[in-house]
Specification:
The structure is a single chain. The protein is an alpha/beta fold. The strands form 2 sheets. A 6-stranded mixed beta sheet has the order 2-1-3-10-4-11, with helices on both faces. It has 11 helices and 11 strands. The protein folds into 2 domains: 162 residues, Bordetella uptake gene, domain 1 (D-Maltodextrin-Binding Protein, domain 2), CATH 3.40.190; 102 residues, Periplasmic binding protein-like II (D-Maltodextrin-Binding Protein, domain 2, 3-Layer(aba) Sandwich). Helix content is 44%, strand content 18%. Helix 2 runs antiparallel to helix 10. The chain is globular and about 65 Å long.
Amino acid sequence: MNKRNILKASLALTAIMVLPLVAQAEFKPTRPIELVVHSGPGGGNDVMGRALIAAIDDAKLSPVRIQISNKVGGGGASAASYLADKKGDPHVIGIFTSVWITNPLVQQEANISIRELTPISLMLLEPALIAVRADSPFKTLGDFIEAAKANPGKMKQSGGSPLARDALVRTVLQAKTGARWAFISFPSGGERISALLGGHVDAMVIEPAEAGELIRSGKIRAVAQVTDARLPDFKDIPTLKEAGFDVPNPPQPRGLIGPPGMAPDVLKYYEELMLKVAQSPGWQKFVRDGLFEEKVLGPRQTTEFLTQTEVQMRGILQDSGVKLVR
């Protein structure tokens, strides 16, 4: 056998030996996957989680069952801490939002930074509307702001975590205008809406999908969009800047994140799963119906996005006079 044939045989043998090792390195879940969300039933993360599971089930993308695990408390801190305790567990993942970034910046107890976890995929960005009851005397956002200036602390806004996007919208508007109004936190989206409709609060930041039917039924009125450009479904409603308030739009990203120490093959599995989900009919319908901005990024790009978002959030909080602990 000449040297060329010896080399070919050697390469062939090497390939045969490597193939089983590659196959063994491919992760596949062997027990139910726990999907951690920080909101209660009906909250934004819970709704997204259930839509994600439905899309996966409909397209038969997972060999095992995926189940929601609601870890409510601390504005996302409980969920982040729970995920951090599952270091290296390939059967636990979570859904992050901006509150996972802001909480550790201002709360000493929220000691799990999103950088300590394993970003898997950004899935979407969520626009928002500022709404009042349909019978409210406030016809514009300016009307509400002027009333808040005239009655410091008397006006009320319903919301979720004090550091979620709806609260940050209040923060930037108060910093810009000098107006002051109360923020009343509720654990679920349904309770926040009920508080507005029941007259217990005067305004709220609401997701477009939730607002649409309430506007059509004459129950609420949107006075501004928390977007850079008007959404096609709400073309008559001004953006914050168009309403006369040139303030930053706090982003609301939603995506998938894993515990610390996630193995490369496990990370690859979930990255590829999310790419399949993004292309599935069920998920595409969820994005359309929710009026979300689809933005699917892989692990490296998601990490970069979260780093940039943390810088932006830190700037918003500092400019608004919020004391940072980290």
